[in-house]
Write a structure and sequence with these properties.
Layout lengths: L3 H7 L5 E2 L2 H10 L3 E6 L11 H12 L3 E6 L21 H15 L11 E4 L1 H4 L4 H7 L6 H5 L2 H8 L5 H4 L1 H16 L1 E7 L3 H15 L4 E5 L12 E2 L2 E2 L9 H9 L6 H8 L4 H8 L6 H17 L1 H15 L8 H10 L10 E4 L1 H4 L3 E2 H7 L6 H9 L3 E3 L2 E2 L6 E2 L9 E5 L3 E7 L1
Helix pairs in contact: 10-11, 12-15, 12-16, 13-14, 13-15, 15-16, 16-17, 19-20
């Protein structure tokens, strides 16, 4: 029988493990309850959360029970791991509302029916905790020199500084592990590479407080082949919420993957067998564009469903062309139309009111508003680089003003490079 640890390793998910032999044995003997934490700083998860979610999906597929821990308590503190400065602190009401959105999104990837997975909120046990009791029971078990040696702490102390509020975060996360072990028989924690120190601390605290030997593992930091952080675009983060990132843009994010990253991303973000992943990743150019379409379709289907993924695939192919020149868009379009799905509505659209347009809106401002550039400065560089067009007309004037006259024949299409565009309508 296949051990899921072998699956995770083959697909590239494992970076560090606290007790690999123990983990392998536990995962091979029967169902194991494990947890991964999610910080509810927004109402939607983004692509940066997908690596742990996909690992949880594989673990559940092989019979293990996920606990998706949302930090209704720890989000009131803020995790300093991987952060160069303190994050803004949200209200309890905002955090609780964010948790509702996160729970809905996790349900697309994990099976929460009949207790097969649980969403747990550490606000349930942290928010009303007595400070003196916590310091006596938990604080006394932590060594300050050891905490100061953590890379995340040293980075902040040498940089922007670190408040006692954030310094206390590892104690709370460690307590979570112990609490989940004691109350849910949770034996493992999985998290990002920057969570290693917190996981190790939780393993130690659980052993010292309740005498249980638990394990932990981290996932690698996901970088693109050029060394930049994965999951960012000109418009910012790529969200799982269709209102924040349209399915078309979500599809295009994956479709625009560089050739050298295709194999890695297929292993992480699809459920295709690894033999097929390796075959697709080895395709030469331009055939590898078909592998990118498969990656984009599979990733979009997991996040939004197969009908929406097909709609995004057809819309993108209609705009930019298909990797397979023999693909028949008419047949697939008719299938979607028979289900009542409007293909034309899938192209990302920005609706401008006449009040917003006024006497005209600057091109750079419009690019930022449309999510085609992160700032006016970036928009200006794109214009100067010859990457910007309205419909089929390349724009070289960064001071251009878009007026109502340009909408005389209907919507316009604002383009940034070969693959990024937004349809602009005037209401």
């Amino acid at each position: 029988m296949t051990n899921v640890l072998d699956v995770l390793r083959e697909r590239g998910f494992l970076y560090q493990l606290t007790h690999e032999d123990v983990m392998y044995k536990l995962l091979g003997e029967g169902s194991v309850t494990f947890y991964t934490g999610f910080d509810p700083t927004a109402r939607s998860l983004h692509i940066g959360h997908l690596l742990p979610i996909m690992a949880m999906r594989w673990l559940q597929k092989y019979g293990h029970r996920p606990l998706a821990l949302v930090g209704g308590g720890t989000a009131l503190i803020g995790d300093p791991s991987g952060k160069t400065s303190a994050r803004p602190i949200s209200s309890k009401e905002t955090i609780d509302d964010n948790i509702v959105g996160i729970q809905e999104q996790l349900g697309r990837f994990l099976d929460f029916s009949d207790g097969k997975a649980l969403l747990v909120n550490n606000g349930d046990w942290l928010r009303n905790m007595n400070l003196i009791d916590f310091l006596r029971e938990i604080g006394s078990l932590f060594s300050v020199p050891r905490m100061l040696s953590a890379e995340s702490v040293k980075l902040r102390i040498e940089g922007a500084g670190l408040s006692f509020l954030e310094f206390s975060y590892p104690l709370l996360q460690s307590y979570d592990f112990m609490y989940l072990c004691k109350n849910y028989n949770c034996m493992m924690q999985f998290g990002g590479q920057d969570q290693w120190g917190n996981i190790v601390a939780g393993v130690d605290l659980t052993r010292r407080m309740i005498g249980r030997d638990v394990c932990g593992a981290t996932f690698p930091l996901l970088l693109k082949s050029d060394g930049t952080k994965f999951g960012k675009t000109a418009g910012g983060a790529v969200w799982l919420d269709a209102e924040k990132t349209s399915p078309f843009d979500y599809f295009q994010f994956w479709r625009n993957t560089t050739d050298s990253d295709v194999g890695k991303l297929l292993g992480f973000f699809t459920t295709l067998p690894m033999d097929e992943v390796r075959r697709l990743a080895a395709l030469p150019s331009p055939q590898i564009n078909r592998a990118k379409e498969i990656l984009a379709y599979e990733a979009t289907a997991l996040a939004h469903g197969h009908d929406i993924a097909m709609k995004a695939f057809l819309a993108a192919g209609n705009e930019f062309g298909f990797a397979d020149p023999n693909f028949q868009i008419e047949t697939s379009s008719r299938i979607l139309e028979s289900k009542g799905i409007d293909l034309s509505a899938s192209i990302p659209t920005l609706e401008l009111s006449r009040e917003e347009l006024g006497e005209g809106i600057g091109l750079l401002t419009l690019m930022v508003k449309a999510g085609l550039a992160a700032s006016n400065g970036e928009a200006r560089r794109l214009v100067k680089g010859g990457a910007v067009a309205i419909d089929d007309t390349k724009i070289s004037d960064e001071k251009l003003t878009v007026t109502a006259a340009q909408f005389a024949n209907g919507p316009i299409t604002l383009k940034s490079g070969k693959k990024n565009r937004k349809r602009i309508t005037l209401a």
